[in-house]
Amino acid sequence: MSEETPIKAVQVKLVLLGEAAVGKSSLVLRFCQGDFNENTSPTIGAAFLTQKCRLENRIVKFEIWDTAGQERFHSLAPMYYRNAQAAVVVYDITKAASLEKAKAWVKELQRQANANIVIALVGNKVDLVSDSTTKPTEPTKVKTEENEEETEDNEVDAEEGEEEETTPSPAEENTSDDIRQVPTAEAEAYAKESGLLFFEASAKTGHNVGEIFTEIAKTIPFDTISPKPTTTSSGNNRRSTNNNENNNVNLGDNQQAKKGGCC
Ligand SMILES: Nc1nc2c(ncn2[C@@H]2O[C@H](COP(=O)(O)OP(=O)(O)OP(=O)(O)O)[C@@H](O)[C@H]2O)c(=O)[nH]1
Ligand SMILES: [Mg+2]
């Protein structure tokens, strides 16, 4: 006779898409292991990982498909986004072309994926620019149960020009201007008009990484999704396209979630 209501647990299939080298695997590595690797290898096919995220009233178990960004793997993508409840579409804020590729992925998802799929657009590598508020904070952590609340007031905060009054050194200013190719406002406006969640993040520093997944978990319309048990992979045979769950994983040995994610 416990006083506490048992917490519901739900599985969420999530797919990461985006141009090669934008940092998809690095974001997953950060989320699942709290780690970063400067020298990753390109993903071949796709990698599969899981990580749990605890919300107030439920535990979300993300089943994450980290796809390969190289064009030769594009045709495999539908196998991974089919039946997905969530997608993280990543671009690199220092590469304008990668936003165009991200937009193409969004279009494809909106045409071919689940009608109510939650899509987050993520501009990665904000640590490379000095015009964001990302550098000094949140060194390597992603959100845990305890610090979940931090995320509330910590969403898109990398407004360009936000720091103007602090008179940055010319060198810093130039570096920032030279490197950033996608203004925050431009991507944010696109995300808004397309109905996407939007974040700028850094897999390297961990900035906003946990927040991406927490916001997705909060946004998924669970009440309209038939609940699935959180036990193993029943009911979704998509993974049979790549039935070695650790197939081509280049995220180290993190086939299953270790510490470092939501919970
Ligand atoms: N500075 C910086 N570098 C990053 C960040 N995220 C990833 N990188 C680097 O970018 C390169 C590519 O990262 P990956 O995570 O392998 O990129 P990917 O999108 O998974 O690439 P594919 O698997 O080929 O699609 C690696 O050298 C990473 O170390 C980041 O947030 N900041
Ligand atoms: Mg990869």
Keywords, separated by commas or semicolons:
six-stranded mixed sheet; about 20% strand; 6 helices; alpha/beta; 6 strands; Rossmann fold; about 25% helix; binds magnesium ion; about 260 residues; binds guanosine-5'-triphosphate
Task: Write a structural description.
With 263 residues, the chain is an alpha/beta fold. It has a single domain, classed as P-loop containing nucleotide triphosphate hydrolases (Rossmann fold). It contains six helices and six strands. Strands 2-3-1-4-5-6 form a six-stranded mixed sheet, with helices on both faces. Strand 4, helix 3 and strand 5 form a beta-alpha-beta unit. The longest helix has 17 residues. About 28% of the residues have low confidence. Magnesium ion (MG) binds next to helix 1.
Helix fraction bin: 10-25%
Q: Give the strand tally.
A: 6
Helix segment count? 6
**CATH fold-level topology:** Rossmann fold
Low-pLDDT regions: 133-174, 228-259
Our count of domains comes out at 1
Structural class: alpha/beta
Keywords: Nucleotide-binding
InterPro entries: P-loop_NTPase, Small_GTP-bd, Small_GTPase
Biased composition (Acidic residues): 146-166
Region (Disordered): 130-179, 223-263
